[in-house]
Amino acid sequence: MLRLVNLELQKLLLNRASKVLIFISFILPFTVLILSSIKINFFGFFTLELGELGIFNFPIIWHITTFFASYFKLFFAIVVVSMIGNEYSNKTIKQNLIDGLSKKEFILSKFYTIVFFSFLATVLIGVGSFLIGLYYSSYTEASIIFKETEFLLAYFLKLVGFFSLCLFFGMLVKRSAFALAFLFILYIFEWIVFWIVAEASNTDMAWKVKNFLPLESMYKLIDQPFQRVLMTKYPEKIDMAYDYAVHWYELVIVLGWTALFVFLSYRLLKQRDL
Hints:
Blueprint: H1 2-14, H2 16-27, H3 31-34, E1 39-42, E2 46-49, H4 60-69, H5 74-89, H6 92-98, H7 103-136, H8 142-145, H9 150-173, H10 176-200, H11 203-210, H12 214-220, H13 226-233, H14 248-271
Antiparallel strand pairs: 1-2
């Protein structure tokens, strides 16, 4: 595994565009944490400091940081599809196979790299959230500090699942731009499925079906935290309550899609005449 990851890292680090995108994909999520130090002065009447609103308290900080950080995954998604596009355009895929790399190892090298970068991004967000939480949170008990750290697991699987989808699209069309376009097409397709089921049955059934589709299932791993923040400020508003927890079956659905995308990527490569 380490050999395959090292091989892929050498290719990426030799590419200037990839290095820039990787750097951006790791730096931008930390803008979420930088928000904690922002102070907004309202014409001298009062100063609003986001860190003092309680949104960086434990355990809610795990939910907030992972939710917003996941929106920056598109930058590394470009790296993933470029990994495939460059292999075909530069003919390195054929050379790798001639040099003794099997088609299975070729796909695994891409997948292991995805797992590596997803794990690294999760560790960085976890450490950053922990330090910000220690500074701002009024809770210091270990049981509260490490409560809901399952959001980090959800964040990791969300990245792995999304990048595996990008890997499949990259293998399918062999061009970076077209692969990213397929993400948008899939997004539209999932909403079409939603409206078809809603018309045939009801909205509740439509949402249940949509929650099993790739993009929606990945999004559902970490639900939006806005209502939760309002609930902490207005606990009497019972109508704001919603289920924001990370559920095991949501993790299983995304793991299933991840395995399928990696398998389909391998099948595409195996059946192609290079």
